[in-house]
Specification:
Number of strands: 13
CATH superfamily of the largest domain: Zn peptidases
CATH architecture of the largest domain: 3-Layer(aba) Sandwich
Largest sheet: 9 strands, mixed
Structural class: alpha/beta
Order of helices and strands: HHEEEHEHHHHEHEEHEEHEEHEHEH
Helix content: 25-40%
CATH topology of the largest domain: Aminopeptidase
Shape: elongated
Distance between the termini: 30 Å
Number of helices: 13
CATH class of the largest domain: Alpha Beta
Strand content: 15-25%
C-alpha cells in the first residue's frame, strides 16, 4: 500500500504523463486526435516506449505493433499476468480513453519494482495497437492479432481512398504477414488479463463511487439498411404518390431509437449515418443508406432486437412504397468477465476500503479479445459528466491514482490465485 504522500506523487506522475502524451496529436483535427497509422501516433509510440523503459520495464514491440513492457517475475516459465489498454484515439477524442489503462499499467509496474514486491510470474504491460474504430471497419487491431483473430481477408479491407489495411501496415513499418502470425497463444501462456479504463458513462459519478468492477462487455451488432424508392421531381410529384427512400429511412432512425429505449436491461441503439445517393435538392430521394448499431450485455435481447428492427423497418418502408435490404455484421459478441478475476478485484477493493459497484461496459475494449487467451476482468474509474470520445473527456487524477492502486493490488492478488479457464 502507498502512503498518502506516495499516492499524491503517483497522481502527479500520472497527470504529467497524460499531459505529455496528449501533446502528440494531429493539429489540424479537433480535440486530441491520434489516429492509428498517423504520424502523431507513430511519434507517441516512441514516448510510450521510453515511459515503459523509465519505469524499469523490459520493452519490445511485437509483430502486430503492440508495445509490451515486461516486469520479470520469480518464475519466468509461469503463465504471465497482463494489463494494459491503448493510446490511439478517435477523431476529435479526449485524453483519457485507453491512455489511463496504459499509463496505469506502467505505474503499477513501477510501484511493484520500487517497493521490492516480487511477483511469482512475469507482468506484461501492453499498449495495444490501433484499438479505436478506423476507416477499415475493424477495431482492436493489436489485440485481435494477439488473439489470432486477424485474417488475410481483414488485410484486404480498403478505406475510402482504396488503400488496404495491409498496405497501411506496410507504410507504418509493420509486416502484414508477420502481423497475421503474431498469435500470442503460440508463445506466451497467460494467467489473467486485467484492464483499467475510464467508464465512458455517467453511472459512477452519479453514484459518487470511485470504482466499478465490470461484469460484462456489450455485444455489438451493426446494421447497413439500403432503402430503394423511386426518383421523381420534388416539385411536381404529389406527396401522396411518392416512394421516398429518405422518409422510409427517417422512420427507421426512429425505430432504432425506440428499440434502444425499450431495452429491459443495459441496451442502446444508435443511427450514425444517413447517405442519399441523390445530390440534387429537387429530386425525391430514391436510394438511401442507413448505418446503425445496437449494443447490449444481454445476448437474448441483442438477438431479438435484430429481428424486431428488421420487421418494423420493412413494414414501415412498404407503407411508403419503398424496398429495403439489410446487412448485419457482428463487431463482437457479448463477453462476460471471468468470475474469479471479478471476485478477486472486489475483495481487493473491500480490503482497501474503496467503495465500488458491479457495472456493465457498453463500449468494447481490447479485453474482449484477450478474454480468448486468459481469464479477463476490467476496472472502471469515473468519467466527469459521463463524457467520452470528445475533447471534454476528463477523469480527476486522484481517481486515476485510486484506480491504479486497485489495479496494482488486484494484480498482486491474482498472482497467487487459481483461475479455472471456463468460469
Amino acid at each position: 500500500m502507498l502512503t498518502p504522500s506516495q499516492t499524491t506523487e503517483a497522481a502527479e506522475r500520472l497527470g504529467s504523463g497524460i499531459g505529455e502524451i496528449s501533446d502528440y496529436r494531429e493539429a489540424s483535427r479537433p480535440g486530441w486526435t491520434r489516429d492509428v497509422f498517423s504520424e502523431a501516433y507513430r511519434e507517441s509510440r516512441q514516448w510510450t516506449l521510453q515511459r515503459m523503459s523509465d519505469a524499469g520495464l523490459e520493452v519490445h514491440t511485437d509483430d502486430a505493433g503492440n508495445i509490451v513492457g515486461r516486469l520479470p517475475g520469480m518464475n519466468p516459465n509461469a503463465p504471465a499476468l497482463v494489463t494494459g489498454s491503448h493510446t490511439d484515439t478517435v477523431d476529435g477524442g479526449g485524453r483519457f480513453d485507453g491512455i489511463v489503462g496504459v499509463l496505469g499499467g506502467i505505474e503499477a509496474g513501477r510501484q511493484l519494482r520500487e517497493s521490492g514486491t516480487s511477483l511469482g510470474r512475469d507482468l506484461l504491460v501492453v499498449d495495444f495497437f490501433g484499438e479505436e474504430s478506423n476507416p477499415y471497419g475493424l477495431s482492436c487491431l493489436g489485440s485481435r492479432a494477439a488473439a489470432g483473430e486477424l485474417s488475410t481477408g481483414d488485410l484486404d479491407r480498403a478505406d475510402y481512398r482504396g488503400v488496404s489495411l495491409g498496405e497501411s501496415y506496410s507504410r507504418f513499418g509493420l509486416d502484414p504477414a508477420a502481423t497475421l502470425g503474431s498469435h500470442w497463444a503460440r508463445s506466451i501462456p497467460l494467467h489473467a488479463f486485467l484492464e483499467l479504463h475510464i467508464e465512458q458513462g455517467p453511472t459512477l459519478e452519479q453514484r459518487e463511487l470511485p470504482l466499478g468492477i465490470v461484469t460484462g462487455i456489450a455485444g455489438i451488432q451493426r446494421l447497413l439498411a439500403v432503402f430503394t424508392g423511386s426518383p421523381d421531381h420534388a416539385g411536381t410529384r404529389p406527396m401522396t404518390d411518392r416512394a421516398d427512400a429518405m422518409v422510409a429511412a427517417a422512420e427507421a432512425v426512429l425505430a432504432v431509437r425506440r428499440e434502444g429505449c425499450g431495452a429491459p436491461n443495459h441496451g442502446v441503439a444508435t443511427t450514425t449515418r444517413l447517405e442519399s445517393e441523390s445530390r440534387s435538392p429537387n429530386v425525391v430521394p430514391s436510394l438511401v443508406r442507413m448505418t446503425s448499431e445496437v449494443r447490449s450485455v444481454d445476448a437474448d435481447w441483442l438477438s431479438g432486437a435484430k429481428g424486431r428492427l428488421a420487421e418494423e423497418i420493412r413494414d414501415q418502408a412498404r407503407q411508403h412504397g419503398v424496398d429495403v435490404d439489410f446487412t448485419w455484421s457482428t463487431d463482437n459478441e457479448v463477453v462476460q468477465t471471468h468470475t474469479g478475476v471479478h471476485d478477486t478485484a472486489a475483495r481487493v477493493a473491500d480490503t482497501l476500503g474503496i467503495p465500488w459497484m458491479p457495472i456493465p461496459s457498453g463500449a468494447t475494449h481490447d479485453a474482449v479479445h484477450m478474454a480468448t487467451l486468459a481469464p479477463m476482468g476490467m476496472i472502471f474509474i469515473p468519467s466527469k459528466a459521463g463524457k467520452s470520445h470528445c475533447p471534454e473527456e476528463w477523469t480527476d487524477f486522484t481517481d486515476v491514482a485510486t484506480g491504479v492502486t486497485a489495479l496494482t493490488q488486484t494484480l498482486i492478488a491474482l498472482d497467487h490465485t487459481e483461475l479455472p479457464r471456463h468460469v
